[in-house]
Design a protein that fits this description.
Strand order of the largest sheet: 3-2-1-4-5
Number of helices: 7
CATH topology: Rossmann fold
Largest sheet: 5 strands, parallel
Distance between the termini: 21 Å
Order of helices and strands: EHHEHHEHHEHE
Number of strands: 5
Structural class: alpha/beta
């Protein structure tokens, strides 16, 4: 699958003008040509955080509109992904790895996506696909 995985941070930053990373994330988003891909746990966390912003309903509606217009594609998780999700969360328990991050790593492995748009550089530099391969972090 061709695309760029998108994490919670950039979704929130793009839609919340008061976010310190807003301008940087909007700039990056304008340069990306591959489709944005995410998972439902990422969307859930982003909607929660957008609910804490100055304009929560507008921000949340904007994210849902992005999904509806397929500006961000949501990849479904499968039952057979659960053992790998559990293994990832166990492996990175010292960080700790949350479910949203685990699903992005799993989708990267399963769909051969190798780029992630994230503000969580610290954790995503540590995560490995399989045993050695890393994700290319944007920005």
């Amino acid at each position: 699958m061709r695309g760029v995985l998108v994490d919670v941070g950039p979704l929130v930053a793009v839609l919340d003008e008061s976010d310190r990373d807003h301008l940087r994330c909007v700039s990056v988003l304008k340069r990306l040509s591959d489709p944005l891909i995410t998972t439902w746990p990422v969307v859930t966390e982003a909607l929660y955080l957008l609910g804490q912003t100055q304009n929560p309903l507008d921000s949340q509606e904007a994210l849902l509109a992005m999904l509806d217009r397929q500006l961000v594609l949501v990849v479904e998780l499968r039952r057979e992904d659960l053992p790998r999700l559990r293994a990832l969360i166990r492996k990175y328990r010292d960080l700790p790895m949350d479910l949203a991050d685990a699903t992005l790593v799993r989708v990267a492995e399963r769909e051969a996506v190798r780029q992630v748009f994230t503000l969580d550089k610290r954790d995503f530099q540590v995560y490995r696909l399989g045993r050695r391969e890393t994700l290319t972090i944007i920005p």
